[in-house]
Q: What sequence folds into this?
């Protein structure tokens, strides 16, 4: 049983005190200050007066910024969906792998997650750019196949025009999926691993095919794991800064890029603070929705 | 099991032995690893344009190692990661211990507040740190190294120690509380019990937590980007400015060094824990908001 804190006050204070102190001073206070700033106004270059105005929030829901919010949510949702589609079979394969192999496969999924985010993004740039590996291979293939064209009596093909793979929304989604795939696979795996296998065997014995068993038995039972995987992928994707900044074009800005600009270049801290808190509230709403869904599922009907 | 064929056909649930899933795994593996492997391979390529293989060279490693600001950034990153790991480990273990052992009024609130740094978007936390160190607690300028890294270290501890607390607390759930009573009955005092009974039980999660805190710190770009000044550049911030400028083999070389370090660290952690699955667990704990 847990002990009441009164039974060992000194131990309790010694253990809870330092982390709580740190959390309050170096996390909650800074966040609180940003919250206060979001109700302030710029007067002069560095002076900010705290007038309690809601004008920053009013500006944040103007169509221009609302569109960026909607776009960020859309990109994050698409990323999450693609991660789910890519990751589910992987999680399934890992779950039913022999135990030695399972550990190695898990490690293989984890290793990119431990690798520096910036390095992974940089690696993608090298693959996607106009002179990147994809365009280079395609160009090579184009030449080889194009060289054959006259032999079979066709018009000679023109020069290869490289595909525009970088600095657009496509690159941002590829980058986000690349970065967040491990986030999706791990919760899926831990949900699938807890499944009662006899249910799957029963379904197969009773004549359902593999696809039907997956859709009717596995997916409903793994739904809590799927929901947490979706949440864990969606939240960081929604607030992504680096990927849209490095891989995106002028029209692929996400919320985080707008916030960064307010603080670093536009020097409009109150508005940036309001945008930050809008993002924070969106995150909390996503968490609350997930919690509500999982609670309503847990209740017997 | 039939003895006629040497490899029996896949059982109903042996999905890994069915070709569509094997193909899928191979595809995802290619997607995850091909960019990283080409990045590492081309760091040895003797060509400035970095696209066609021109022969083996180590000159970009030489260049990267002679690039003073890059080496300095690398040293800064390692120092920050080491210090913030130690502090996070202490704070995280203490928090886990307190939350595991005691019930007290307001515990749900503390629990929720501890989870906040894990779920708050990086950009919000970066902005908060920027404002805090600009307006509330200006970190003194011109301090000698490594004291000038203080602001970044503080920021890194703030986002890593809750992760350590989660990992350690998950481990403490498997602690048999009767051991505690037995130790008490045998006359162990508070301190003795923590040192000889609780910490040994925590040990594997401390290794996992340390690895997690170290990687989180080494990996962080966004929060550092908002906290660092011109004389406190970390490796990711430096690479960022290099990448914005152009794609050069020098960046490949520096990245390769960091990737190799990551793999070595992982291998060391595996050694210490004996089982790759156990270390993978730290990611699963991380994936739990």
A:
């Amino acid at each position: 049983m847990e002990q009441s804190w009164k039974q060992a006050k000194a131990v309790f204070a010694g253990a809870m005190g330092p982390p709580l102190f740190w959390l309050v001073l170096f996390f909650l206070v800074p966040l609180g200050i940003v919250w206060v700033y979001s109700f302030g106004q710029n007067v002069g270059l560095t002076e900010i007066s705290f007038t309690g105005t809601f004008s920053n929030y009013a500006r944040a829901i103007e169509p221009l910024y609302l569109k960026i919010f909607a776009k960020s949510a859309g990109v994050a949702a698409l990323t999450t969906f693609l991660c789910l589609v890519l990751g589910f079979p992987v999680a399934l394969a890992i779950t039913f792998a022999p135990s030695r192999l399972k550990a190695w496969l898990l490690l293989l999924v984890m290793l990119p997650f431990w690798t520096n985010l910036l390095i992974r993004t940089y690696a993608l740039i090298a693959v996607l750019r106009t002179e990147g590996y994809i365009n280079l291979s395609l160009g090579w293939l184009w030449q080889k196949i194009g060289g054959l064209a006259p032999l079979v009596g066709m018009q000679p093909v023109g020069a290869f025009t490289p595909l525009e793979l970088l600095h657009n929304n496509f690159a941002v989604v590829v980058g986000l999926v690349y970065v967040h795939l491990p986030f999706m696979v791990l919760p899926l795996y831990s949900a699938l691993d807890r499944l009662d296998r006899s249910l799957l065997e029963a379904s197969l014995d009773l004549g359902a095919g593999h696809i039907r068993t997956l859709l009717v038995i596995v997916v409903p039972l793994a739904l809590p794991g799927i929901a947490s995987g979706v949440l864990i992928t969606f939240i960081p994707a929604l607030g992504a800064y680096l990927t849209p900044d490095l891989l995106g074009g002028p029209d692929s800005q996400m919320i985080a890029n707008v916030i960064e600009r307010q603080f670093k270049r536009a020097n409009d801290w109150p508005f940036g603070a309001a945008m930050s808190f809008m993002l924070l509230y969106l995150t909390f709403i996503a968490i609350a929705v997930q919690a509500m869904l999982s609670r309503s599922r847990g209740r017997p009907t | 099991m039939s003895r006629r064929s040497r490899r029996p056909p896949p059982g109903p649930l042996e999905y890994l032995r069915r070709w569509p899933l094997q193909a899928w795994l191979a595809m995802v593996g290619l997607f995850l690893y091909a960019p990283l492997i080409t990045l590492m391979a081309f760091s040895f390529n003797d060509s400035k344009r970095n696209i066609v293989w021109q022969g083996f060279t180590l000159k970009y490693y030489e260049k990267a190692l002679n690039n003073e600001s890059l080496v300095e950034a690398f040293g800064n990153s390692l120092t920050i990661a080491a210090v913030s790991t130690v502090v996070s480990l202490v704070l995280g273990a203490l928090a886990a211990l307190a939350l595991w052992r005691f019930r007290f009024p307001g515990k749900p609130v503390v629990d929720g507040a501890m989870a906040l740094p894990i779920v708050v978007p990086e950009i919000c936390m970066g902005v908060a740190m920027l404002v805090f160190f600009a307006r509330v607690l200006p970190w003194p300028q011109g301090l000698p190294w490594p004291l000038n890294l203080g602001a970044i270290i503080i920021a890194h501890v703030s986002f890593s120690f809750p992760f350590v607390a989660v990992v350690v607390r998950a481990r403490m759930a498997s602690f048999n509380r009767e051991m505690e009573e037995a130790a008490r009955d045998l006359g162990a005092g508070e301190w003795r019990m923590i040192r000889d009974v609780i910490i040994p039980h925590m040990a594997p999660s401390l290794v996992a937590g340390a690895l997690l805190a170290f990687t989180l710190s080494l990996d962080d770009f966004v929060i550092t980007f908002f906290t660092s000044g011109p004389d406190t550049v970390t490796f990711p911030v430096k690479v960022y400015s290099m990448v914005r400028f152009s794609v050069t083999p020098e960046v490949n070389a520096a990245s390769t060094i960091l990737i190799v370090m990551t793999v070595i660290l992982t291998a060391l952690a595996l050694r210490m824990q004996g089982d790759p699955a156990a270390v993978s667990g730290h990611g699963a704990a991380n994936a739990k908001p």
User: Anything to note?
Assistant: The two ends of chain A are 32 Å apart (CA to CA). The CA atoms of residues 79 and 177 of chain A lie 5 Å apart. The first strand of chain A starts at residue 3 and ends at 4.
